[in-house]
C-alpha cells in the first residue's frame, strides 16, 4: 500500500497548517494512500506541548488520518523544549554557534528514529508542513538527512512535498526572532532529487528563490477551500442561542488564535464603536488557554469598553467537516459559525500572517469579510480584486467603522459583495487549483513497468488525432505488438476549440490497455505545450514506485511526437533499443516523406530528397539534434537541462514564444555533456502539408519567418480562413532557390553546430574522415579563435550558436561543399552565391565583414540569407 507520512511544525492539534495538511492529504487518501500525521508537539517549544501525550486529538481529524508520532524522542539525550528554545535564541537569532555540535548529534539521533518509523510504516510519500520556519533546526536537519538516506535506499524520486506557510520574512521579521537576512544560521533548503518545495503564493516563491537560488523545484500551491455557501440547517440552528447571541443581532466572526500578534483588541474596539448605533456581537473562536495573559487582557478591554456582554469567546471550533473529511458530532464547526455570521473579521498584525485563512474561508462560505492591510494581504487577496473594508491604522478609525457599519446595515450590499468574492475565490482558491497542481506533480499514477511517456501537443487536431493515436496504440516490437505497459501517451491540449479533447477522451475509453493522460496548457504555442507535457511526465516518472530507475537500472525516456505526423510501427521500440544500447541522453529519429505524395512533382521531390540524404549523413556522424516531430530524452538529462526552455521574440509589436524549442533543448542537453544517438529505424513520416501549404515561403526562404523573427503560420488547410494551396511542382528557378535555402539551412545547423559544441570531434574517428585532415584541422583552429574572439564559451542559447556557425559557413563554404559532394553525391553542387554586400569586400577583410554581417541583429540580414530553416 502507498503510505503518506506528514509532519506539522505547528505543534497544535488543529490549526490552519494542520487543516491544509488534511486537505492535501485527502487527495492522496482518495487514491488509496494510508495517511499518517505527526502534530509536531516534540518540535516547536513555545506551544507548551513538548512530550505531551496525544489524547483526544484524533477526534478533531478525519478517521482516515492516523496520528503517528516519532517514537522514543524523549530518550534522546539532552533533547527537550529548553534546548530547542536555547538553539533558537542562541544559534539562530544571535549567531552563537557553540551549540552546533549538540545540534548535529541530536539531529543524527532524530534521523535514526525517522528512518525506523518510515521503514516500519512503508512510507512512499512525505509531506512536511512549515519545516523551513527555524523553530527547531535540530528536527529540520534530521528531516533533511532522513529524506536523502531513505530516498536513496528505496530508489525513490521526488517523494517529498515540503510546504512553507510561514517563512522568516513572513513571520514577525521585525523581532529578529530568526536572525537577520540572509539568515545565515537557518538550515538552507535541501537541493535534492527527492524534494519539491511548495510556496503559498508567487511572492513567497520569489523570495524563496532569492534566498535559496540553488533550489529549482519550487511551485505555488495556494491554500484551497470548498466553495459552498454556509447555511443554517438542523445541525446548527441553535448556534446563536447556545452562545447567547440574539437572532436579530448582527454577528462578526473572528476565527483565530488568541495571542497578541492576532490583534483581537482591534475587533473589540470596532465592536464598541459599532455598538453605539446597532445591535452587534463579536464571536471569537480560539483556544483561550493558549495565552492566558492575552485572554485576560482582552476580556478586561471588553469590560472597560462596555461590550463584555457582546463579546463571546467560544473556544475551539472544529474546521469545516466537509473541507477535511472530519467526522460529525464533535461540537460546532467553523462552518456553523459562518452560517450565522454577517461578517468575518481578520484585523491581524502587519507582519504576522502570511495567508489569512479566515479570509479564504469566508470567501468560500460566501460571507463578506473585513481585514487589516497586513503585509501580504495585497499579494494573496487585495490585488486579485476582492472587495472588503481594509484597516490601515493601528485602531479602527471613524471612516473604517462607518464603512463596516454600511456593510452590516445593507443586506443587498453584503449579498453583492459576498457573491463577487465567492466567484473570484472559486477561480483562485478552489479545490481544482490544488488538484491540478498535485495531479501534475504526484497524483496521476504511473505503471510500474512504464519506460516511456509520449508527449503529444495538440491544437485543433481533430482531423488527424485519431489516426495518430491509432498509430501509437499499434506500436510493435521485434516479436509482435509492443507491450502497452512500457509506454503511455500524454496529450497536451493547447486551447483547442474543436473536438480534439473529446476525441482523445473517447480514444482513452475505447483503448483501456494503453494509459492516456490529458493535460492543458493555456499559453498558446507548441513550445509551451511540449514543455508542459514533458514536465508532467518527468515529475510523475521521478515519483513512480522504484524511483527514476528501477532496481535493474532501467532508464526512463520522455518522447516527443507531433499530431500531424505519422510514426512507423517500430518507432518507439527502435528508439528504446537505441537509447538503452548506447546509454545516450538524446535519441533522434529518422524523418522522411513518402515519394508518392510528390508524384508528378520531380523538381520539388529532388530538392527534398537531396536534403534528406545530407541529413542522413550528418545524423550518422553527429547523432543529430531533436526535432519535435520525434525524439527522446532521458528523464534525468531533461531535468539537468531544466526542461524545454521557452524563448520569446517580438512579432508585430508583441512578444510571442519561439518555435525552435526542440533544437535549443538538444543544444542545451549536449552542452551539459549529454550524448546523442541517431536511431535510423525509428522513423517519422512528415506530413506533406508542411511543404504543400507553405510552398511559397519555402521558395522565398521565409518558411519560419524573416527579418530576424522565427515564426510559422498555421499551415493546416482551412485555418484562419486560408484556401488550400493548389498542389504543383516547382519551376526550374524555384527549385534552385528552394534547394539553396535548404542547403544553407542544413550546413550551419547539422555540420558546423555539432563541432562548435564539441571541437574534439574533429580530432579523430568518422568525423575527421568526413571532413578530411586538412579541413578538420582548419575548422578546429578557427573555432578556437572565434571562441576567444567572441569571449563566448557556451553556445547554448539559439542566438549564440547562430553567429559563429554562420561565420564558419562563409569562411569554409567551398571546402564544406567539396566534402558533401564527395560523401553524399555530386548533385549537392557548390555553395549558393554570397550575399551581394559581401561580393565587393576585399579578400583580406572578408572575415571581418562576415562578422559584421552575422551580428546584424537589427535587419536580420544573415537570418534571411540562411532562410531560417527550410521545412524540408
From TrEMBL:
Keywords: Transferase. InterPro entries: Glyco_trans_1 (IPR001296), Glyco_trans_2-like (IPR001173), Glycosyltransf_2 (IPR050834), Nucleotide-diphossugar_trans (IPR029044). The keyword Phosphoprotein does not apply. Pfam families: Glycos_transf_1, Glycos_transf_2. Residues 239-420 form the Glycosyl transferase family domain. Residues 453-605 form the Glycosyltransferase 2-like domain. The keyword Transferase applies. Gene3D superfamilies: Glycogen Phosphorylase B (3.40.50.2000), Spore Coat Polysaccharide Biosynthesis Protein SpsA, Chain A (3.90.550.10). This is Glycosyltransferase. It comes from Streptomyces zingiberis.
